[in-house]
Write the structure tokens for this entry.
Amino acid sequence: MHSRHVRPWGRLGRTGRLAALVVLVVLALADLAAAQKGGLAFGALLPLTGPLADRGKSSKVALELAQADINAYLAASGASGQMSISVENTGGDPTQAVEKLKALAGRGIKVFIGPFSDAEAEACLDYADKNNLLLVSQGSSGPFLSKKGDNLFRLSPSDTYQAEAVTSLIRQEGVATIVPLWRADRYGDDLVVHVKARFKQLGGEAMPGARYAADRRDFTPILDDLSRQLVQASRSGSKNGRVAIYFAGGDEVVPILKAAAKRPELAAVPWYGCDATAMYDPIAKDQESAAFAMKVRLASPRYGEGGANVYSLTEKRIQDKTDLFPDTQSLVAYDAAWALFFTAQSAGSATDFARFKQLLPQVCERMYGVTGWLALNDQGDRREDWDFDFWVLKFEEGKYFWEKAARYQFEPGTAKELFLSSGNK
């Protein structure tokens, strides 16, 4: 993946310092009793093949590093046991994820990192709830899975925060009306609902938009509808500011961009994307879609990188072993492994389900990891200390590459801030 790996907006000092102290503070408090009893066993459900394979591979390496770091700590502390993480490939498929969950549970494992996606997490949750298994996902973020009391904990920010971030950028850049274009699935539907609601709260207007089936291949009628609404919005709302297109979908973005490039009215307005289009390399590798994405300055949010040194060092360790630009969720997986380890120390084992479930939120409440504060809300989702980086395509020396253009930052005890790059917008 071609990217300009820069951090023009680091975290403020307080969180950065606390993140760097996680090993010093929390480890100092850890009781080694559980490890001394013979070791700790956890499972991991990762998409090592399929459309999410790169993310799965990055998470796998992150967990291998966490396992090695934890075991090195145990050895240095004189503990006789070790921690192990058994990884199974879900292929990104919900049915396969459930099968792999059952297989690991059959080996006596009670606590799991993953699954990565919303669809996999939803499919596994019923079995987990009925069999006292705990899921700690590094990637699931759909608001529809935010439920109190179930056995799913999630350490990535909810898509409601993604909607908050992207609408803040859209309004900041002078857009008064958005015309959504989205895929008819739970991901697209949820995002657009929250984007529309948030944009209206910020004083903007939202057109009905164009919704298409997930299996659609001919986008001509969809773009016809989008063009009609765009013209209507331009006529009625241009006096209040610009009109823009908001896209929420997946890999079909490439043919959509190529088709839109042939329509001058769609090329005349800015486009904004979702986390599925952020740094999505097939866009950059296709000349037509890349040229159009750059022309309309397609800006897409991605769960932001941490600014602390410990984040940079861990990110580099993952990148060195994968030759991939790590997604932030892989570093969340690293944090998840440490959180499970600390919880097992407090609980006395990794198999006492009730006690482990009770203590995990308490551990996360006082833990500052590589990605920041891991505190959870009542639904078991990450509560705060999250950021979103916005990525756009640039062209230089005959190559397209991704460059960070803005950052929406939220730290505990501070106001949310939007930072824009000094480049042309």
